[in-house]
Structures are given as C-alpha cells and as structure tokens.
C-alpha cells in the first residue's frame, strides 16, 4: 500500500493520463464515427460498451507488453519506436485519416470501436507500458488500470475540450512528444541487456531520458521545417 503513496507512483499515473489524452484523442473520434448511425437510445450504450471493450483489450495488451519488456534488447527496440511516435506527434496530421465505417446495429458499432482501437493502440500500449516501468513490478498493472480508468472518461467526455486546448496551446503537444522521448530514454537505459554495464546513477538515467526528449524535439522540428518548403512548392 505504501507504494501507492509515493511520488514515483503518481508521476507515472500523470504520465499515463497525459499519454492517453495525447495519443487517444483519435479514439474518441473513432467512437463517435462508429456509433453515429445508431438510434439515439442505443448510441450511449454503443459508446459505453465499445469503450469498455477497448479498455479491457488495452489492459490485456499492456500486460503482455510489460512482460515482453523484461526480455533483453526489447526495451531498446521499444525506445526507438517511441522516439518515432514522438516525432510523428509533432508533424501535422493528414486529412481523411479516419476512414471508419458506421453501423446501425449496436454490436456492429461496438465491434468497429474495439477493432479500430486495437489497430490504433500500438503507440498507446507501448508508451503506457514504458511509463509504468517506473513503478514497482508488482504494482505496474494496477497502475496501468488506474491510469486508463482515469484517462478514458476524460477522452470520451471531454475530447472536444482537449482538442481545442491543443489547438490553442500547441506547446501541450510539443511537451507530450518530448514526454514520449523521455520515456524512450528511460526504457533504453533500463534494458536488461545493457543495465549490468552501466553505473547505478540516477543522474545518468535522467540525462539519458532528457537526451531522448531533446532528440524528439530536434528531429520533429527539423522534419517540420523540411515539410513547409515542400508544401509551399
């Protein structure tokens, strides 16, 4: 129980909530699109059932991811993927990304939500599993479940507010992308394959995490700068 009262636990919870809001905004759009043709009385049930199914599926995937991250070198691979996800987060979105078919049947809409969430959840699962590494091993999955339970209602109920905040304050997206780079650095530093060869230094761990955050920022801004002349041309 003491683990749940530590600063590290609540820092990881905060990271999970921010990751899920930043990377899960699309999921709220998917839910709305999949349920848009349901009759009014079934629409709310479709949203609730679809969201519940998506949460359960994501918890299962993250449980597998937490186990897999104990395998040597997989954290390094995961760190590289997270760096790329962070860089992509800084790039402007293409229009027409949400090609989601809707259904006028309750379970058809629920199935669409769950399948779409499965396809779109790779980044969320990897990032959340990385954030949970900061907690004690026995508390990682409860931490993930708690973070998801808090963040999913925020996404579903306040997605429009979140999107407007991101549009008005682009720095939120930049900070979120750098957070993914920070987690990537932490993951790479704690990989079982290289951990025995590194000194036990909290400062070095923070330095590697900070390097990951800066790497995402620099690469993301360079790619943005290259895209602008191409669009102008």
Description of the structure:
- This protein is mainly α and 233 residues long.
- It has one domain.
- The protein has 8 helices and no strands.
- α2 crosses α5 and α3 crosses α5.
- The protein is globular.
- The mean pLDDT is 77.
The percent range for strand residues is under 5%
Unreliable spans are none
- The helix fraction, in percent, is over 70%
- The 3D shape can be described as globular
Tell me the number of structural domains.
Answer: 1
> How does the major sheet shape up?
none
Keywords: Membrane, Transmembrane, Transmembrane helix
Subcellular location: Membrane
Family: Belongs to the TerC family.
GO cellular component, one term: membrane
Report a brief summary of the structure:
It comes from Polaromonas naphthalenivorans (strain CJ2). The chain has 233 residues and is mainly α.
Question: Topology, pairings included?
Answer:
Blueprint: H1 7-34, H2 40-68, H3 74-89, H4 106-120, H5 122-132, H6 140-168, H7 171-189, H8 202-232
Helix pairs in contact: 1-4, 1-5, 1-6, 1-7, 2-4, 2-5, 2-6, 3-5, 3-7, 3-8, 7-8
Distinctive features:
233 residues; mainly alpha
């Amino acid at each position: 129980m003491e683990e749940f009262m530590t600063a590290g636990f609540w820092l990881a919870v905060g990271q999970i909530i921010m990751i899920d809001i930043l990377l899960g905004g699309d999921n709220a759009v998917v839910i709305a699109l999949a349920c848009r043709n349901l009759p009014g009385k079934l629409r709310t049930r479709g949203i609730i059932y679809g969201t519940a199914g998506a949460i359960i599926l994501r918890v299962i995937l993250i449980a597998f991811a937490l186990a897999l991250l104990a395998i040597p070198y997989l954290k390094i691979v995961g760190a590289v993927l997270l760096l790329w996800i962070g860089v992509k987060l800084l790039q402007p979105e293409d229009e027409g990304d949400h090609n989601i078919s809707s259904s006028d049947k309750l379970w058809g809409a629920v199935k669409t939500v769950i399948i779409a969430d499965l396809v779109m959840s790779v980044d969320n699962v990897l990032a959340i599993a990385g954030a949970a590494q900061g907690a004690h091993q026995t508390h990682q999955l409860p931490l993930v479940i708690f973070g998801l339970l808090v963040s999913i209602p925020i996404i579903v109920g306040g997605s429009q507010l979140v999107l407007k905040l991101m549009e008005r304050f682009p720095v939120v997206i930049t900070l979120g992308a750098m957070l993914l780079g920070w987690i990537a650095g932490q993951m790479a530093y704690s990989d079982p394959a290289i951990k025995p060869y590194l000194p036990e230094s909290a400062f070095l761990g923070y330095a590697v995490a900070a390097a990951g955050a800066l790497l995402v920022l620099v690469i993301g801004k360079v790619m943005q700068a290259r895209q602008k002349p191409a669009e102008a041309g």
